[in-house]
């Protein structure tokens, strides 16, 4: 199963990807890439590269997105919700939050911890970037009266009630990320500037 993340806002949000920074060596165009390459990635000793397993000669340079690191590829993606997501709207303050979107972390998660930093440093950097990109966007949008709400649940569990024990409020003007963060299952977060 997959976990989905949702955001509601009193102001419209920009759709699409945010936060990614392609390498100066990237030659991909505007079309969705068929492959991704991270220049900083090194195979562990004894590992076999994909090029040695699969014939990748059909994928050309213009179809491969190139990033210096996984952190550079990381960010967020905001998308409109179709009618099939109508059930998720009940978790938000309607009608004061008329704009409800899906939001996805790209090349990371909305989670990081000290253990991840120690054991998976590249993943940790990507995850921190996903979270900071999200909060940077929220700081940029609207004015001092703009409010946001976040919610997360597993696919096909949109009808289930929030976990009220996880509900929290964040004041963006004073909020600082610590050494860990997680947008948990069925957690509701109210965010004000």
Trace the largest sheet across and list its strands. Answer: 2-5-6-1-8-11-9
Largest sheet: 7 strands, mixed
Indicate the mean pLDDT.
90
Which structural class fits the helix and strand makeup? alpha+beta
Task: Give the tally of β-strands.
Answer: 11
Query: Which spans have pLDDT < 50 for at least 5 consecutive residues?
Result: none
Percentage of residues in helical conformation: 10-25%
Helical stretch count? 4
Overall 3D form: globular
The gyration radius over C-alpha positions equals 19 Å
Output the helix-strand order.
EEEHEHEEEHHEEEE
Q: Span between N and C termini?
A: 33 Å
The total domain count is: 2
Query: Proportion of β residues?
Result: 25-35%
Structural notes for this entry:
- Helix content is 18%, strand content 27%.
- It has 193 residues and is an alpha+beta fold.
- The chain folds into two domains: 3-20 and 71-192, no CATH class; 35-67, no CATH class.
- The strands form three sheets. The chain has a seven-stranded mixed beta sheet with strand order 2-5-6-1-8-11-9. Strands 3-4 form a two-stranded parallel sheet.
- It is globular and about 55 Å long.
- The relative contact order is 0.22.
- The mean pLDDT is 90.
Features:
193 residues; alpha+beta; two-stranded parallel ribbon; 4 helices; 27% strand
